[in-house]
Design a protein that fits this description.
Elements: H1 7-36, E1 39-50, E2 57-65, E3 70-75, E4 91-94, E5 101-103, E6 106-108, H2 113-133
Antiparallel strand pairs: 1-2, 1-4, 2-3, 4-5, 5-6
Helix pairs in contact: 1-2
């Protein structure tokens, strides 16, 4: 009698790990960070800082919020970040739980097509790999 192949389980482990990476990268680092960011106020200082050991730069914004408190926000090259190099006196209105935001009353959209596609791929891969590991039910005839 031939033993069952172990390849489907190995493939399921690889798909499971790949799905976790996709969900962590797209779901947490891009969407969750963007959703939980809240910046509402007027930019009073903008400073571009070169990145150490990596190409590009980050922008350190100092802004005055609606309560007249001075806050800081660091904009990076990550998709979850707001735009870099905004000029002083720019009014930013990014509310928590919204992906888009307003910059001087102009709507800045966040493209969700790419992220939705990869979230669906990650979730499908995760469910497929979990169901591959579930024990198969034996069918009994009466």
């Amino acid at each position: 009698m031939q033993q069952p192949s172990r390849h489907p389980r190995i493939i399921a482990v690889i798909v499971f790990l790949g799905s976790l990476v996709i969900l962590w990268t797209v779901g947490y680092h891009a969407l969750w960070n963007r959703l939980t960011t809240e910046v509402i106020g007027k930019v009073i200082d903008s400073k571009d800082i070169p990145s150490t050991g990596a190409p590009g730069y980050v922008t350190l914004y100092t802004y005055r919020d609606n309560d007249d408190q001075i806050q800081e926000y660091i904009a990076t090259a990550a998709p979850s970040s707001l735009d870099r190099s905004l000029p002083v006196d720019t009014i930013i209105h990014k509310e928590k739980w919204n992906l888009g935001y307003f910059k001087n009353d102009e709507r800045v959209r966040f493209s969700t097509t790419f992220y939705t596609f990869f979230l669906v791929v990650g979730l499908c891969g995760l469910f497929w790999s979990v169901f591959t590991f579930l024990p198969k039910r034996k069918k009994y005839r009466e």
